[in-house]
């Protein structure tokens, strides 16, 4: 499998080529075939968002630039010293053959972030340190793949066009209420206009519609906070992740109201399920963790759209993956029951980044400087690679294994042994079963 | 009694006698062997060097579990990468040039602290440079305290944690952006209890950081580097040692003296205490970067610093 990992300590992008079973923390285990750094800058220009569009890569950095790269696969050249020689004297190249990606910068757009907006917000925030602006989301529009929508923490919504896969051009910038922790595009059904949801600290979830020519941004729906708790205290608001579901079925709906369904996790460990048909308050608001411990990310499990929304309208049967700020990556069901924990006893730092890919894998990276890949269903770890820096974002380019050439076994016996099970036919198996059953009956008869 | 020379004597006293005899013999052999070896090695010092090189004792420390974060040129595939990656991203939060911004430390205790905490604060005031102690008052949030410190140009905040009239912990927060370190404090020995202790002077001490190897260990080392000024007064001849062994950090303070060209004298100034890193957090106690959990103690040969 081939991974692109953004490291925060020098703003680089690391390409990791590894096979399942890789674990760099054990010396004798399988090691990654290649770990190579690209685009090294500095810690202030760390990469926060990554997007792969065919043979181009769009990169959003924390210094406010968005860069377009052309990626090209180049065969990996083996250093001659590493060639292993066999006992027969002839040297056989036993190094696996694989490609390495090279990146060529095509175009950049600068100054897309604004820290000044966040100054007053960070004074009010419950975060104790100053908040810096960053990109919270970057996605292609569902109806026009050449247009990117970027949202920043400071509430700027940038619309950028990729012209002929070569040039980036900023078309329009809109402002929404800051701060933002996410901006999730709705792409479950096809429509001409673009709807996306945003929210953040003390910033309730809002649905906005972007007109077809990108010139107007109108708010179409806003959530309402839940009722006060049993001590009559206000429940704090801080949605940190949102994912849409398919809209409700057509026979029950009220055509005057909007028809959206979405799931929200909050910094105060709530799981909220909203139906715009139901009203502005959530249908359900469940405490996932005790003591309102923070939750950071939300990923759905199942058949997903390109932006990560769930292709199902059933709010009573889904599961989600979320992380806290300590070390847990957890999978919950819609009732708020914990199903599994990923990387238990293995992850030591805050799992900053989690993503489900192809309905098969879970990518995880964070403050403990490891990148891990898990199997989604069994929660078994597939790979673990040390990347020397804290990890911000991961992209899985492909999940194909690299073939590792192996020495032909010399002895004929070993070859024979290996082939035996293949020669076994169904008949043989049946005979064996019959034989076993006969044995059983004879024993019973004796008794 | 198994092995080569089994003793099959049923009388216990006789058996013991015989065993003592055998043991005595073995001891004598060993002593003569050692005497002879010492004599040979005195004549030929190379032999001793060779012997010491060959017979290395296996200790828990040198059998430690492989940790890839220990910067080792052998295990890094791409040699050029070391320099770039070695620089820690926490580094930019710490004071890099002490000339322009000398450390200025804000010292306080937990809310409602007892006598032990104030006594320990008195000790820390002597150790830490450019420190100001403020009595902790109830009703200020951590964010407000940090804001006040920032306005007064403090670079670090140290909080003493006292529980049941004993000092149990020490929090170091770097201002304004973190990180936060929480250490457990144990084995505190006050100055007066140390035999032959000296009296410290107000000179800036030299700092010895021992054995901080992993990435996490180096981060901890950087914390102490940033707290103490990097221009020691050598005429004071005072040294603060932070020695890391098996994840325990031992704090010692000495004064040295050069008796003649070969001999060096050490006088302990005290106090002594031991710290153990429990938690490292980003920001001012925000996302956890590393936290000690009890199951980390299962493997006796795995160390994190």
Describe this structure in words.
- The complex is a heterodimer of chains A (447) and B (305).
- Chain A is mainly β and 447 residues long.
- In chain A, 9% of the residues lie in helices and 40% in strands.
- Chain A contains three helices and 28 strands.
- Chain A has a four-stranded antiparallel beta sheet with strand order 3-2-1-28, with no helix packed on it.
- Chain A is globular, with a radius of gyration of 26 Å.
- Chain B is α+β, with helices and mostly antiparallel strands.
- Chain B has two domains: 35 residues, no CATH class; 209 residues, Brix domain (Rossmann fold, 3-Layer(aba) Sandwich), CATH 3.40.50.
- Chain B has six helices and eleven strands.
- In chain B, strands 1, 2, 3, 4, 5, 6, 7, 8, 9, 10 and 11 form an eleven-stranded mixed beta sheet that branches.
- In chain B, helix 1 packs across helix 2.
- Chain B is elongated, with a radius of gyration of 26 Å.
- Chain B starts with 11 loop residues before the first helix and ends in a 14-residue tail after the last strand.
